[in-house]
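User: My instructor asked us to take a sequence, write out its structure as tokens, and then describe one feature of it. I'm not sure where to start. Here is the sequence I was given:
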Amino acid sequence: MINSPINNANREAMIIALKELENKLNADVLVYYGELLDGIEASIKQIIEQICNDGEKHEKLFVLLTTTGGSLNPVKRIVNIFRHFYSEVNFIIPDYAYSAGTVMCCSGDKIYMDYYSVLGPIDPQVMNRDGKFVAALGYLDKINELIEKARRNELTNAEFVILKDFDLAELRAYEQARDLAIDLLVEWLPKYKFKTWTTHTSTHGPVSEKEKYNRALEIAQNLSDNKEWKSHGRPISREELGKLKLQIDCLENDPQIYKSVTSYHELMIDYVQKYNMKHFIQTRRFL
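Assistant: Let's start with the prediction itself. The structure tokens for your sequence are:
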């Protein structure tokens, strides 16, 4: 097979851009584009082991993440892989990271976003009986609404059929996914994101572990409030995240790194769109 010269030129440009970004960050860089699918953690394990055994490993890892979300099942294992090899893990969101992607970001020591970047509600996706990913919170809200109408004897015949035919095991899976998303934020935010939060800004008093836990729970509950965000794909800017007390670092604060991230991301998006790729992963050793 003859490789397209355009393909080769694109690949070479991305390799150069990634290497430049690693040099400026003084860190290893992993790029992930696409849904977070069950089983992808095995590939991430192999890819991370490659760069950790090539003699050029850094102590820090930066993850350039672009995802619509997906399953929470691989997220915890991927975070475990990152943390096994790196003492510091940071996330850069050049565009968007929704749902399970937002959950993954909250395992980072830092989250970098620019004025255009967005995260989303932690509305995990669960595979239904038809083999399709569906947003869990929307289903739970609708079922709770129907249950409340039934309690008030206001349920229509059509709604009764919907409620009667709903699979209880499927409903439980949605509840478990919602609870897991909250649990992961409550576990990871105090351990990583809040680890340097030792003093209150207003009182200058010490921050206790209980206060870190309470802050993490508050953020998790806010991000999982479907009545607040209305939509699984609701974009949440860094300013809105700041109001939720989730500190976001501004990517533009370092113009050189910002330029490198933007240049790389434009090359990558052009590449995946040109070849209609649903998933894309890159490191200095893997493309």
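For the description part of your assignment, you could build on this observation: The beta strands are 28-33, 60-66, 88-93, 96-97, 110-113, 118-119, 125-127, 133-135, 249-250, 280-282. Try explaining in your own words what that tells you about the chain.
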